[in-house]
Amino acid sequence: MSGGSVAAVSSNETYSFTKPNRESITLLAGLGVEGDVHAGVTVKHRSRVARDPSQPNLRQVHLIHEELFGEVREAGFEVAAGQLGENVTTRGIDLLGLPVGALLRLGDEAVVEVTGLRNPCLQIDNFRSGLLKQVVGRGADGAVRHRAGIMGVVLAGGVVRPGDPVGVELPEGPHRPLEIV
């Protein structure tokens, strides 16, 4: 099991694109981040609720790798932890390279199962004009690359703080690459 660390934690009880940084967040099994607008058993993302409010919430926790901020800074965009709506900002983990079903052990108790990629929306350009093209682009093979983080569900709850270790456990058997959830 390899891993990295938690760089920042963020949550917001109201719908807004950015989430303020916190001293800690509490993950609740089967729900998500305590007090966060996206916590729940069923979908909370507005466009998904409009389509089918009974869908399971595969987006209980949003994680972004801190290294992305350095990459977009090189293109002229200043972005800090929480500003892209993530709950957990990690350091030292290739989140985008994880397969579906990977387990992230955050701090002493919390466990998040990776469900897929975040599908970044136009709100990113409302936050910083032109930023969407930095987090969604095409690879050398022409395939679309989504780089705005990953989503997961909480298997085991617990408190998560900046500086906590993040352990990664890969699933058994063939690995399925992440797709948008």
In total, how many domains does the architecture comprise? 1
Compute the number of helices.
4
- Give the CATH H-level superfamily: PK beta-barrel domain-like
How far is the first residue's CA from the last residue's CA? 25 Å
What amount of the residues lies in strands? 25-35%
Query: Looking at CATH, which topology would you report?
Result: M1 Pyruvate Kinase, Domain 3
Contiguous uncertain segments of 5+ residues: none
Q: Work out the radius of gyration.
A: 15 Å
| Main beta-sheet annotation | 7 strands, mixed, barrel
What's the mean pLDDT score?
93
Reading off the top of the CATH hierarchy, the class is best stated as: Mainly Beta
Strand order of the largest sheet: 1-6-5-11-8-7-13
CATH architecture: Beta Barrel
Helix content: 10-25%
Please report the total strand number as a whole number. 13
Sequence of secondary-structure elements:
EEEEHEHEEEHHEEEEE
Q: Identify the overall geometry.
A: globular
How would you classify the helix and strand content by structural class?
Answer: mainly beta
Protein name: MOSC domain-containing protein
In summary, what is this structure?
This is MOSC domain-containing protein. Helix content is 13%, strand content 33%. With 181 residues, it is mostly beta strands.
